[in-house]
Amino acid sequence: MYNELIEKLAKDHSLTREEYLQLIRNRDKVRDRAAELACGVREHYYGNRIFIRGLIEFSNYCKNNCYYCGIRAGNRNAERYRLTGEQIISCADTGYGLGFRTFVLQGGEDPYYTDEMLTGIIRTIKQNHPDCALTLSLGERSYESYRLLKEAGADRYLLRHETANPAHYGTMHPAAMQWENRVQCLKWLKELGYQTGAGFMVGSPGQTEEDLAGEMLFLKEIDPQMVGIGPFIPHQDTPFKDKEAGTAELTTFLLSLIRLTLPGVLLPATTALGTIDPLGREKGIEAGANVLMPNLSPTDVREKYLLYDNKICTGEEAAQCLECLKQRVRKTGCEIVTDRGDYFPGANK
Ligand code: SAH
């Protein structure tokens, strides 16, 4: 019966809440078939091509206090840094030389970077590299700010909703942060024409299997072009330091379900997945993921952008990381390519 459900998902790209829940509860019985179907769907849209995005972690200052995150404002032990506009632009130049054609600017919510500064940085990177896509991951901002950044040339925006359950959201964030606002931001981003990424942590404290079924329905409804998921991993200097981590086993199964629900979605095998399991990123690709996001940040700041404990790849140069990933990907039968890796309009239908 579970096998019928997974075949139905592969055919219809949608299930009821109860059906998703049945699959999640009985994932051991359908995992292999789910992965096989998910890889078939990925193959249909993208062949064996894995896209790379150069991640530039430009600031670990943050005004927020998410209970799970290592760079939360309240963490006095975090050594804070900010990259200058010039440093950010130079990271992109280095990345271009290595073959990257997408750059992701990610940081804590740091008001130091005004719209004016950011639009200047975006314009310069797009001028220097007109054949590249630029992705932002700067958290919640106003509609007007998102509009200005888009107008300056940003193409994509990653803003994980973290959980589709507002009550669960309330247990992971202080009252100043509201689920409704985050979801409003996601809708604005889509409306403004960004290729938009939603996503959630897997195995975050308090998350139930029912919640995960809810995640699938939420993603289907929002219909994002990208979905970022990774296991929750505790950070020693946060209120969630003693909570249990999420697993690679559950994360990879959910990657398959997401691929089957949103067939054309751009779906990363994340660094958190590679941290919880040494072969996590390979397993993610084998479950249906098609994006990797190696780090392009300068080596001396990498070990300061710590969202969770034991983060991998904080020591290597960008070129080393890329070489290592190419070899890892080859073992899965896929291949890293240097395209911009845009989303096909309508591919989730
Ligand atoms: N400030 C930006 C970027 C946040 S960091 C924003 O608000 O979107 C990117 C993602 O890392 C977060 O969305 C969250 O899902 C993930 N993350 C944060 N802490 C984590 C932890 N302890 N374990 C796993 N993932 C974590």
Any low-confidence stretches, pLDDT <50, length ≥5?
none
Helix content: 40-55%
N-to-C CA distance: 25 Å
Question: How many domains would you count in the coordinates?
Answer: 1
Strand order of the largest sheet: 2-3-4-5-6-7
The secondary-structure element order is HHHEEHEHEHEHHEHEHHHEHHE
Mean pLDDT: 97
Give the name of the CATH superfamily.
Answer: Aldolase class I
Q: Give the ligands present.
A: S-adenosyl-L-homocysteine
The 3D shape can be described as: globular
What is the CATH C level class, in words?
Answer: Alpha Beta
Q: Give me the CATH architecture, please.
A: Alpha-Beta Barrel
Indicate the structural class: alpha/beta
Number of strands: 9
Report the radius of gyration as a whole number of Å. 19 Å
For the sheet with most strands, the description reads: 6 strands, parallel
CATH topology group: TIM Barrel
Question: So how many helices?
Answer: 14
> What portion of the residues fall into strands of 2 or more residues?
5-15%
